Q: What sequence folds into this?
């Protein structure tokens, strides 16, 4: 034992190196852990559509049986679309242009909101006739004044295809199929990591949630351990109101919700990426002459170059950016010691923005690649490798 | 349907027996895939589906649906007060287990519940909405879930029906599950 002192310094070196080895192992372990992503956003912003895209891009896509299982949902989408439109025609004092279509209108109203027992040829003929009617189209153009699904036009335009007996939904059809999500679900998938980042594969967990007000109470239960939030915003929503509260503007709700998420002390460790979604619908809306200005008067003073669509999308991004740079001033009321510490520790955070069209697989692939790269860089820089 | 209890928590699924201990005939379990109606008609089906929903954080839908079913079978003298309980639990602004319905259905229901004496059918529209939500979203996922498949196979092996709850260390529950 007496001989040991001269070896001791050597021992310390070994210990130190072992310590480093251990730490590296720890780092690699966290690196090999699944990246946990949480999709958040208001109702109908496109969260579940992103999940479907992940299935197409990173899992096996949709099997034949999964496709045929979508048929009733797609047909129901078609029904709820036309039913909602004709139900709102009297409300907006719009009549049918062609008197011959009155019978079809009565037929559909009689079917009721739940849809027909069976989708027959007669049913589809009536829907087709009505969708041709100029009065119906006029009411459709004012869809922001009532509640209509975003894919109404897409499905009604494809009524002949959807009505066929041997109809098999395409990826595009499935992506546009609207179904309200309730609760929280998880999908898991693997993604190849670019060689430049270290190669191999990376596991992902993606959590999808319902977006309407009642559903949001549940979110907090899955906040822990989340690496990144994908906050999805339906940009084309600027002239619509919430399904769960007809007095609230949808885009304003998204802004309030985003601020809550951004400021949540449970999410300080999570990266936040905002998906400014539904760019295709936004562009269509703006090109049809709609403007965001009546709903967000500040647009009148917004300075940016480009056409109306470009200016609108930049303006919307600006609305969100402003919330991230705003000082944390709300909710001083809860002045617990814990909260104080959190505030002290809160550091400058970055928020990333992407303009997206979640129904476009190509677009989502590109965005996912960017986001993946960003998350990897973030993790590697956290462990001091990159 | 149980009717002995007038509180809203009758159907809370706290102590569900593991069905695999005493497997049901597979013919019966297979019927659950015929339609949501079939599943809900079977008490074992209801319990299993409730368990699935609680893993997905959407158990309130079934609880609401069952509470409304129960309301319909109550003696008339108890209808009004039970209707108010249902409203408070699932639909009021600060409801502890809010169900996800549209503003129009909520408003229609509110008028019926608040004006005079609510009848047995005051929640019909809201109930139909929630039924549709369960059917189109949760139920189709349930049929594809490992949980249902395992039940159907009467699997003896310990299956990994991991709920989302197991991936987050949500203290209280985590402790329960490791016990």
A:
């Amino acid at each position: 034992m007496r001989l040991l002192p001269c070896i001791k310094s050597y021992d310390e070196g070994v210990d130190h190196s072992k310590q480093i080895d251990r730490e590296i192992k720890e780092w690699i372990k966290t690196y090999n852990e699944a990246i946990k992503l949480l999709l958040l956003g208001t109702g109908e912003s496109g969260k579940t559509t992103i999940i479907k895209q992940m299935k197409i891009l990173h899992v096996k896509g949709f099997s034949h049986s999964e496709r045929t299982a979508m048929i009733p949902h797609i047909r129901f989408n078609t029904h709820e679309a036309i039913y909602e439109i004709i139900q709102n025609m009297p409300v907006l004092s719009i009549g049918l242009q062609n008197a011959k279509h009155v019978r079809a209108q009565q037929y559909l109203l009689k079917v009721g909101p739940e849809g027909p027992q069976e989708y027959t040829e007669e049913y589809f003929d009536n829907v087709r006739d009505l969708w041709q009617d100029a009065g119906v189209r006029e009411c459709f153009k004012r869809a922001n004044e009532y509640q209509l699904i975003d894919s109404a036009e897409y499905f009604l335009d494809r009524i002949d295809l959807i009505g066929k007996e041997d109809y098999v939904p395409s990826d595009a059809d499935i992506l546009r199929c609207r179904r309200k999500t309730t609760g929280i679900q998880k999908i898991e998938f693997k993604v190849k990591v670019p060689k430049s980042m270290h190669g191999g594969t990376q596991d992902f967990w993606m959590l999808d949630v319902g977006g309407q007000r009642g559903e949001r109470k549940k979110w907090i239960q899955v906040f822990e351990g989340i690496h990144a939030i994908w906050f999805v915003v339906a940009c084309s929503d600027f002239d619509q109101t919430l399904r769960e509260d007809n007095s609230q503007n949808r885009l304003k709700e998204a802004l309030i919700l985003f601020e809550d998420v951004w400021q949540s002390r449970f999410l300080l460790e999570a990266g936040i990426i905002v998906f400014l979604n539904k760019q295709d619908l936004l562009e269509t809306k703006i090109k049809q002459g709609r403007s965001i200005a009546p709903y967000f008067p500040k647009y009148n003073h917004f300075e940016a170059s480009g056409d109306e669509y470009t200016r609108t999308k930049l303006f919307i991004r600006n609305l969100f950016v402003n919330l991230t740079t705003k000082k944390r001033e709300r909710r001083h009321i809860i002045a617990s010691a814990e909260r104080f510490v959190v505030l002290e520790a809160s550091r400058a955070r970055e928020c990333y923005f992407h303009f997206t069209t979640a129904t476009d697989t190509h677009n989502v692939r590109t965005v996912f690649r960017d986001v993946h790269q960003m998350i990897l860089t973030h993790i590697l820089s956290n462990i001091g490798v990159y | 349907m149980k009717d002995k209890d007038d509180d809203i928590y009758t159907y809370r699924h706290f102590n569900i027996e593991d069905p695999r201990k005493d497997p049901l005939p597979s013919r019966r379990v297979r019927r659950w895939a015929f339609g949501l109606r079939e599943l809900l008609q079977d008490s074992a089906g209801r319990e299993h589906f409730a368990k699935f929903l609680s893993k997905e954080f959407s158990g309130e839908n079934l609880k609401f649906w069952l509470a409304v079913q129960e309301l319909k079978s109550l003696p008339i003298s108890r209808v009004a007060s039970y209707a108010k309980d249902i409203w408070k639990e699932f639909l009021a602004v600060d409801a502890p287990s809010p169900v996800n319905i549209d503003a129009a259905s909520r408003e229609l229901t509110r008028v019926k519940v608040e004006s005079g004496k609510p009848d047995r059918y005051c929640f019909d529209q809201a109930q139909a909405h929630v039924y549709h939500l369960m059917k189109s979203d949760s139920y189709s996922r349930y049929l594809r879930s490992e949980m249902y498949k395992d039940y159907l196979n009467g699997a003896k092996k310990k299956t990994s029906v991991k709920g989302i709850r197991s991936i987050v260390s949500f203290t209280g529950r985590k402790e329960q599950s490791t016990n």
Confidence is low (pLDDT under 50) at residues 1-17, 155-161, 165-179 of chain B. The two ends of chain B are 32 Å apart (CA to CA). Chain B has two domains: 23-55+145-179, 59-143.
